Structure formats: structure tokens, C-alpha cells
Amino acid sequence: MIPVNEPVLTDKDFEFLKDAFTSGWISSAGKYIEEFEQNWAEYCGMRYGISVSNGTAAIQLALDAAGIGKGDEVIMPSFTIISCGQAVTNLGAIPVLVDSDVNTWCMDVTSIESRVTKKTKAIMVVHMYGHPVDMDVVMGIAKKHNILVIEDAAEVHGAKYLSNRGTSSEQWLVCGGIGDISTFSFFANKLITTGEGGMVLTSDSGINDRAMMLRNLCFNNERRFRHYELGYNYRLTNMQAAIGVSQIQRIEEIVERKIEIGRYYQEQLSQIEGIQLQKQESWAKGVFWINGLVLDDSLNCTAEKFCDELRKLGVDTRPFFLGMHEQPVFASKGLFIGEKYPVSERIARQGFYLPSGLSLTIDQVDEVINSFKLVMEKI
Ligand SMILES: *Cc1c(COP(=O)(O)O)cnc(C)c1O
To answer: What is the whole-number distance in angstroms between the Cα of residue 81 and the centre of ligand 1?
Structure first.
């Protein structure tokens, strides 16, 4: 079976891990924690990094540190991972959804402003499957209405966005360095991995202070074990951070390889009728976190059925996300009842992704493409 997303861990990663291990600093104190935070923040163009135990924790911490609370509204895409929706509802806040852009599958930025109300506190964008959201539009709306922008950048390590297009201040910005706060995951299938892990980035010292406190159970310096607020234990270990420090030293190499695989897939798959690939906009330098596609309705075949056939030929796949408005758990809370987001619904039903890991060889990609063509003939 060609795996869908296998990590690549090097001897150097192991040297770093071993150093943390033998130093005895195996919990959340130790030199690699700050080094990892500083290096990643600097790479993305933010002032502060707060490492956490996973990407879901990063989103929760970001929203809490930003002061999102009961009754506040957060505008976000329907088409994303549950982590985004639950981070909002866990705080007693209300997720307000928008549909996906039909080409990039990122949130449709043209439908954001009509969802702004007096209660809107933040817009949470999710850069989708390696491709950036059109951030200038989002930042413009946020500035006009004085609301925060949180970027979920878990799928776009190293992706770049062309800001101020066509003006003298045109500039490529790193995703996760554009909004007020950003969040990353370093799960094993992400471009940079620490096994499990995550990070919140911000340039706001107040948000940084709050995030640091909330991450560590809201201990305070005045009297340890006296608490004025409730927080979380979201600490990352020094051992994980050591792997992270090693990994980000070769971020350019990792991004380059992902783009190579992604471009090859796009070249080969674009010759096949009946499927839609993720459009790579001219203002984006995407990193092809995964290589996804959406089957045309005219094929009369769902992603699920297609993937069963691919699996029989030794090709592993994953389905696309299922929109927040189609989640039974939110319906049971009375959320999004009767709401419709047609693009999100269609790509959730018809979309899936092919093997996309860093360990993939071009020969394996050819094998995937051949199997794909066989299934196309069969259905
Ligand atoms: C992977 C991912 C997360 C969650 O990260 P975990 O580390 O698995 O908790 C959040 N958001 C997006 C968009 C992701 O792809």
C-alpha cells in the first residue's frame, strides 16, 4: 500500500532528540523549547511563539488568549477540521460559517463581510490543503470593523501570500505571519513535525502573556498554587521541541520537495477529464500539503466509492473534511440548522486526497496515477 502521508525523520532529527533525552530535560523546561518557539516565530515573521501539545490546543489557546468568550461570534469556514468549530463552542462563543471558494477550497472571502455583526470578535481563516487564503481581503474587513484575524496555518508551513498586489508595496508574506494570531500543528502528517505538537504565534505582547499563562494552568508568580483563572496544560516537551528545531532547519528543502511532488501530480492529473484539482492562484506560493481532487458530479461516483477501488489497487487515500454545518454533534447543539453551503457540501462528498507524504518517490506517484486511470475506466 502506498501510504497517504508518511513522515521523513532524519539522523539529524534523532541527534537533536537524543541530546534532549540525555540532558535529562524531558518535560517542558529545557533549551529547545524557546529555541523552537523563537526560530519558528522568526521564520513566519511574528514576534512571539508559544509552543503547545498539538494543533487543536493551539486553536483553543489562541481564541482564549484573544479574549473570545460567551456570546461572541467567530466567522470561519464551514469546510475545515472539527478543531476549529469546537474551539469556538468550547468557549461558549458562536461559530458563524461561510462557504468555500469553488477554485481553491479555502473560505470564500467575498462572503465574509455580510456575516459581520456587532457580536463579531474574530475571523478565523484556514489556509486549505497547502494553499493560502486571500488575506488582503480578510485584513481589510477586519480593520474596517475592528475585529481580530486568527490564521489556522496547520496545513501551510512555508506557504507564501502576495500582499498588496499591483502596488509599490507588493510583498510576499509567510502564511501564519499575516493575521493577529496564527496557529500551527506539528502532527506527523504536517510539513514540519514533532510527532504531536503545535504553536501559537502573535506579535501582540498582551496576547503572548495570556497565552503563556493559560498554557500552564494559570500559575502565577505571587503564590504558586493560588489561581485567579482557569487554564490548560498544553505544554510541549523539550524532546519534541528538539525534533522541531532540527526539522525547521531544513524547511526550504521540505517545501521544495512538496512543491515538486505537487507540481508533478498537477501536471499528470490535469490531463484527466472529470476531475477538479485545487487551483493554485498567481498570488499564492502553495506548498501542496496534500494533493486533493474533486470528482465531477457527472461521473456519478462518490469519493468513498472511488477510494475503495483505489485501495484495492494498493493506493491509500483520505476523504476531505466534512463541513461544520453537516456535523451531527453541532446539529445536536442546535447549531447551523437549515444552513446550506453548497461548495462545502459538494467537495466533502466528491473530494479526497492521494498519497502526498515527503517520502513519496516519483515512481510511486506514477503508480498512483496509473491506478487512478484504471479506476476512472472502471467506474
Ligand atoms: C491538522 C490540523 C489541525 C489539528 O492539529 P492536531 O495537531 O492534529 O491537533 C487543525 N487545523 C487544521 C487545518 C489541520 O489540518
So the answer is: 7
